[in-house]
Specification:
about 0% strand, mainly alpha
Length: about 240
Amino acid sequence: MQIDDPEFKKLIRRIESLEDRLLTRKEFKREDMLDLCSEYEKKLEIDTEIKEVKKNIRDVDQVIMKEELRGMRKSLRRLGFTNKENVVQIKGRVACEINASDELLLTEMMFNGVYTELSVEQILALLSCFVFQEKSGESAEMREELMVPLRLCQDNARRVATIQKESKLPIDVDEYVQKFKPHMMDVVYSWSEGAKFIEICKMTDIFEGSVIRCMRRLEELLRQLQSASKAIGNTE
């Protein structure tokens, strides 16, 4: 070819050097070398197919996320957290103040006047359902004063979950309602009435550490609800 370019000649010498090194390796003297090369080509083809499948999975995931995003937007509009233009409304601004638990349900209950219908002790007991996440071996027994708050919570939870399901979000309505556990309601109610810690610990089989953890989460949730109330001009 009579190419005089020094870089090209350098490249040729490097190729020849690599070929010599390659031919001196014992693998090239194997009788099944052609079979190994064929297997390696198949491996490369499979690797290419795997990359293509992974790309397709990512594309499908993006479609699913888009569908869920549309469902979330629809449910927020129906609940009044945003308007038809997806602009955040006052309910949405209130929900933004809450992250200690389910902000949608807590905000919905606030705007439905649930808290105004209850005493302070009942409110605290009710909010314990949002922060208690431990398992308890005993069934939740509670005094009559706590039946109404629990029913209000469950009714609002069912409504929120139903709207989300109708908006094509992947949610089990009954499972959503049942995730708010009432096992600490009686304990928190007694504590808010002035019962000592040793007394409320005797009322349940829940570990003392779990009771303390629940109380701390409850305190944080109360702070956030206070900020949320201020966001709508309620300073009481």
